[in-house]
Amino acid sequence: MNKKYYIIPIFVPHLGCPHDCVFCNQRRITGLSTDMTREKADNIIKEHLKTIPSYNKGLEIAFYGGSFTAISVDMQRELLGVAYYYKKQGIVNRIRLSTRPDYIDERELLLLKEYGVDIIELGVQSLDEEVLFLSGRGHKSEDVYKSSNLIKQFGFQLGLQMMIGLPGDTKEKSLYTAKEIIKMNPICTRIYPTLVVKETFLENMYLNNKYEPLLLQDAVDISTDLLMLFQYNKINVIRVGLQPTDNITLGKDVIAGPFHSAFRQLVESNIYKMVLNEYFSEKDLKDKNELTISINPKEISNLVGQNSVNTKWIKNNFGISKVRIHGENIPSGIFYIKTREFCDKIKKDEIIEKYLIGNKLIGN
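^ thats the sequence. predicted structure below, dont judge the formating
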């Protein structure tokens, strides 16, 4: 039986956050309109534990939303105390929280150590000073470097989150942020395309034609390069795109922006399209009647793409009348392209590395 790793999320919406970033409305994003308490946190944990099997691979309590270390010390102690109780009992393995870079110092880290916190994720969003200013972040890039170093010095695991498409942002600035994040060597990162959410300053900017959100395909293309860059550097990308909820969807609390309920799959499929394009550009496959791709079954959906977009692209661009996809017992990251004349073994990582070098994303 496959064991899964489980996370019990506890959302602390906007509680304690000292700034209203232009893009942020935590109550809309989390779907919560009331503040968190010790009792509510304990009830959330107990309810989740009822549904989590005892044979799990690991269990984590995670405090998301707002800026955890900006709330009062008393409230931090109350909430962390609940999580730490379950960790001391051996029921959960890790405690995680997310916060702002400018609300981390030695005193705070000592407190988090006292309550058994393992992972601290910082909302970096961007390391470009203009983007930080235009987004109303209220801190500078130096705060990110300083707090990241402190977190690692104190023995915590570091996670760094970034956004694309913020006011003043460009693809080049997003790539710069990603490369700087890589230098800080976090254990994980997240990539969030900027969405225009109701009751934010960004909504006002958008409605007054002062902000233009990324188109969906542009967001996918930028995220494709970022995901490949992070993965090449062995950094685990634990999320690409905002988690869809009943309210976080276009037409409800999201009024504009590159929202898609399966955004990461769009990005993963786009990576396969790039890999196939790099391969086909060096191989004469024009007007082959039939082509077969053999791949690990778990990778089929990403290879094919939503609505078979990648297989249609192969047919339309290379005149191939039939594309067959076979799931076989093949290691992930390897696939085979076969015609009557040949059978080529494709190593996905090798083509990605070639792409990254060719586009000067690595090695310079």
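Residues 5-261 form a domain with the TIM Barrel fold (CATH 3.20.20.70).
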